[in-house]
Design goal:
This protein has one domain: Up-down Bundle (de novo design (two linked rop proteins)), CATH 1.20.1440.130. The chain has nine helices and no strands. Helix 1 runs antiparallel to helix 6 and helix 5 packs antiparallel against helix 6.
Length: 205
């Protein structure tokens, strides 16, 4: 199913929604980083409990893995899927090299998120979960799944029409795959002794 025969409206709308959510989370983390820089003893709004907080993450080396605060990557990076989503809704067509570059960027973001999840749960200096980070994770994971399938169905990964059609059908399973990914994160947290599910339920109710 080539991109020339159908406009990926659902995928485009999701990219826009994910970008807005991801950018907002990155912006909030950046604000909290500024607050900490101005006053190291400040009580951050994202410090919900001993286990759910962003203070430890922002002050750790993992929070500046590239030599600058990670949220800056989010503020800049989420502009790409926002642009792609809006352009797709406007009917734009992109060449294969563009899609492969975009896919590489999304894959990098997904890999970084997986690494940060592992660090947040298992690193000796952390053992906490950042609410704004979790919001970022929640949209990065399905964006990766959807993008990989979209690049398969639009011919960027393969010219095999059967594979493209299969990828198109699998798009309907992205929400389930995302829920299963969330479940894995919750399970890892539970096994580590972090009552993530209980904390999240407590935050909601």
């Amino acid at each position: 199913m080539s991109e020339q025969r159908t406009r990926p409206v659902v995928y485009a709308v999701w990219l826009i929604i994910a970008s807005v959510i991801g950018w907002f989370a990155a912006f909030q983390l950046t604000v909290e980083k500024f607050v900490l820089a101005a006053n190291p003893d400040a009580v951050l709004s994202c410090n919900v409990s001993v286990m759910i907080q962003c203070g430890k993450n922002l002050e750790s080396w993992q929070g500046e893995v590239f030599g600058f605060p990670n949220p800056i990557l989010g503020i800049a990076g989420w502009m790409a899927p926002l642009f792609v989503g809006v352009a797709l809704l406007a009917g734009s067509r992109f060449p294969r090299w563009f899609w492969l570059t975009f896919g590489a960027g999304v894959t990098f973001a997904f890999g970084l998120v997986c690494w940060l999840i592992w660090q947040s749960i298992y690193a000796p200096n952390l053992g906490v979960l950042c609410p704004w980070c979790m919001l970022t994770w929640s949209v990065t994971i399905p964006t990766f799944f959807a993008t990989m399938l979209h690049l398969t169905r639009n011919g960027s990964f393969t010219s095999n029409e059967k594979v493209q059609e299969r990828a198109n059908r699998l798009m309907a399973w992205v929400p389930l795959a995302t829920i299963l990914a969330y479940a894995v994160v919750i399970l890892l947290a539970q096994l580590r002794g972090l009552d993530l599910l209980g904390e999240v339920i407590g935050m909601i109710f």
